[in-house]
Write a structure and sequence with these properties.
about 260 residues; alpha+beta; Fusion Protein Consisting Of Minor Coat Protein, Glycine Rich Linker, Tola, And A His Tag, Chain: A, Domain 2
């Protein structure tokens, strides 16, 4: 009975030791087995650029005694050279000052100003009556000696010259002998009409190359005379007329000179 009790106490002591050891082992692991929390998202803002620090001035190293000696010697030499070059500089400065002295220039002689004479001549404008041509004026009236073309378009001559051409055409024919031999040509002539319509002058200026054709044209003008009297609005009087008469392709054509 005592042996049984002893084994029971041993078993209890061993179980208590095992339980105590299990508590010691499991207790530190409780924080690790805590419930898991959801992660919190955090956004980081960009940090501003930091200004670069200004470079620190390098510390001045005091010059040694050996480095100071040459500077002192150089200062003494510069004083000696300055004393030597000062007389030369004074001479050059004097020469420059003499060259820069302004040379006296005589002022330009003033020109004599001629007063402008503004004289405006008053001109009287012509009247409308003076600008308009006279009733008997024509483009050919200024040239009294020059002949007027029989084919002119001047309204002063058109009516009268049309009557003259009709009278000449009624007498002008293509010679039958010239038609037979196929003679062609152009001639120029001038004739003068008096105030009463009489033929005063007739002359050949340029031949057609055929005497037969020239004689027929001169004959037609002589046969058409006398012409109607020259109207009062036509100047000059007597009137000289120029014409060019052509024989071509069995037809008679006027090619009047101007």
């Amino acid at each position: 009975m005592s042996a049984l009790n002893t084994s029971i106490w041993r078993f209890l002591a061993l179980s208590l030791a095992m339980h105590a050891l299990g508590l010691l082992v499991l207790y530190p692991l409780r924080p690790a087995l805590a419930p898991r929390q959801d992660p919190i998202s955090v956004s980081l803002l960009p940090t501003p650029d930091k200004a670069e620090p200004a470079p620190k001035p390098s510390p001045r190293v005091p010059a040694s005694r050996s480095s100071r000696v040459p500077s002192i010697i150089a200062k003494k030499d510069s004083r000696i050279t300055a004393e030597k070059t000062s007389p030369a500089r004074d001479k050059t400065a004097r020469n420059v000052s003499r060259a820069e002295d302004p040379i006296p220039v005589s002022p330009p002689t003033p020109r004599e100003t001629i007063p402008e004479q503004s004289v405006v001549a008053e001109r009287q404008l012509p009247t409308l009556k003076e600008l308009l041509p006279e009733p008997t004026w024509s483009s050919s009236s200024a040239r009294n000696d020059a002949p007027v073309s029989l084919n002119t378009r001047d309204p002063v001559y058109v009516t009268y010259f049309t009557k003259i051409k009709q009278l000449i055409e009624s007498q002008w024919e293509y010679p039958e002998l010239a038609l037979r031999y196929g003679l062609q040509g152009r001639l120029a002539l001038e004739f003068t009409i008096g105030g009463n319509g009489r033929l005063d002058q007739l002359r050949l200026i340029r031949s057609s190359g055929s005497q037969l054709l020239d004689e027929e044209a001169l004959r037609a003008i002589k046969a058409a005379a006398p012409f109607p009297p020259i109207p009062s609005w036509i100047k000059p009087n007597p009137l000289s007329i120029s014409a060019s008469m052509e024989y071509h392709d069995n037809r008679l054509n006027y090619r009047f000179t101007r």
